[in-house]
Design goal:
This protein has 260 residues and is of the alpha/beta class. Helix content is 43%, strand content 14%. It contains eight helices and seven strands. It has a seven-stranded parallel beta sheet with strand order 3-2-1-4-5-6-7, with helices on both faces. Helix 1 crosses helix 8, helix 3 packs parallel to helix 4 and helix 4 packs parallel to helix 5. The termini are far apart. It is an enzyme of class 1 (oxidoreductase).
Length: 260
Amino acid sequence: MKTQQSARVVIVTGTSQGIGQAIAQTFLNNGDIVIGCAFSALEKAPNARKMLGEYPDRYFYFSVDVTKTESIKQFVIDAEKLFGRIDVVISNAGKNVFKGIDCEESDWSHNFDLNLRSHWFLAKCARPALRKSNGVIIVITSNHAFSTMPGCAPYNISKRALLSLVQSLTIEWGPEIRTVGIAPGFIDTDGNQVWFDSHADGKMAREKTIKKHPVGRIGRSDEVGDLCLFLSSDKAGFIAGTTIVMDGGRSAIMQDEEDA
């Protein structure tokens, strides 16, 4: 087990559930220190409370609205104060804003504040600390950045823009800071289970989704965590400025058979 002196200090946004929680758990299992945040207050974040109980000296939680730049700025200040440094930033917070291209202006603005601007501003605030540590930024986007479906705008548009953010952070802040993106596909989370359950036959909806993946299953949150752990390590030191698709081969399919 690493000591607090040797452990890295890792910021992870959106740690109250789903992929963010799994990423936090992966780094904690690795012996690192995780400073997490999510929109939910601690009393409404049971997963965060559980990790606080299990890792009282290595997990810290803040309630942060990442659509508010002042909240992000204060979070980074508070996070750096805890241990005097930041080594890794996993910019994960976001949500599906599936309103269609004819969405209201308020939906458009909320989507870009949450799913694009927050990632840029978090990186901007963490930059001074990351320069000192020769740190790593990992931006979590989506396979919707590469191909999408009707009704998924404006979400997919912001996710596409994150590909360019990863590139710009790499070429303008390197070599002191290395930046990589991850584009997960269908990951088995509580949120996606809600989507399955919204169908008349939730089991059938899950089975149909699984069949659309060449690997024969949908992804697990811990697999995203494992990829984050690798990409933040020295073993991935030559990987920068690119976004890795992690979707079980879903995007390799030109056309679904049922749509042919």
